[in-house]
Design goal:
Number of strands: 0
Oligomer: single chain
Distance between the termini: 94 Å
Radius of gyration: 30 Å
CATH topology of the largest domain: Arc Repressor Mutant, subunit A
CATH architecture of the largest domain: Orthogonal Bundle
Number of domains: 2
Structural class: mainly alpha
Order of helices and strands: HHHHHHHHHHH
Shape: elongated
Length: about 240
């Protein structure tokens, strides 16, 4: 029996717009008059167009553009993000900025800075790169420090949430125990409930302080205030 040769893979159909984008990208790569930073930005602008208009360039346009250029798709997505954050005029201004020590803004700098969603944060980082001469390694170190601080805060919040959960379970069992022991009128129990009510009031106050609504979004953030124990348990509301 003669083995049949494997079927040939069909060449993916490219839209005319995507074919044109691929040709432009290859021209940018061959353009000796452009710096490496300028070439990457120009390709990033093309990638942004492909990403923003799947009907024109095809649903898998980014993947096909990456394959045609011999690049990883994630690289093109990062380049498109940079082109989204800085238009041509802004890019021309920042590419010429350099620190006193000669360190300029590199593509790796831009990839890191572009991860910040707020423009104000990106501007601060760019100024620091120029004013302090931050290398890419130093900038990555700054990011790690911030992530480490956020992780510590998140752990503290998680621990607090667990403690609140334990308190809720303890309070939830009180009505049944009071009814079973018929101890609701005992003076010692009343004093304990009074102390519990005071503790809950303090907890509500401290919680509101931590999650105080901002001036910009008072209503939206007020809904984010954690609700455990914000409504005092019926047992704790007894006179």
């Amino acid at each position: 029996m003669v083995d049949k040769p494997p079927p040939k893979r069909r060449k993916p159909q490219l839209t005319p717009a995507l074919e044109s984008a691929i040709e432009k990208a290859k021209e940018y790569e061959r353009d000796a008059s452009k710096t490496e930073l300028e070439k990457r930005y120009a390709i990033g602008k093309l990638a942004k167009d492909v990403q923003d208009d799947p009907e024109k360039y095809g649903k898998r346009g980014m993947l096909r553009l990456a394959n045609a250029l011999g690049r990883d798709k994630s690289t093109l997505f990062r380049a498109a993000t940079i082109a989204k954050h800085w238009d041509s005029a802004a890019f021309r201004r920042l590419k010429g900025r350099a620190a006193p020590n000669g360190i300029g803004i590199t593509w790796s700098h831009l990839e890191l800075v572009a991860k910040r969603k707020k423009r104000s944060e990106r501007d601060v980082l760019l100024n620091r790169i120029v004013e302090e001469g931050l290398s890419v390694r130093a900038l990555k170190s700054e990011f790690r420090k911030k992530l480490s601080g956020a992780a510590t805060i998140a752990k503290a919040i998680q621990d607090a949430a667990k403690m609140v959960g334990r308190i809720e379970r303890m309070i939830g069992r009180l009505p049944e125990r009071l009814a079973a022991d018929n101890a609701g009128d005992d003076p010692m129990v009343k004093n304990a409930i009074k102390a519990l009510r005071g503790g809950l009031r303090k907890l509500r106050t401290s919680t509101k302080t931590v999650w105080a609504p901002s001036a910009r979004h008072p209503r939206r953030q007020s809904r984010d205030v954690p609700t455990p124990l914000m409504v005092a348990h019926p047992v704790a509301n007894r006179a």
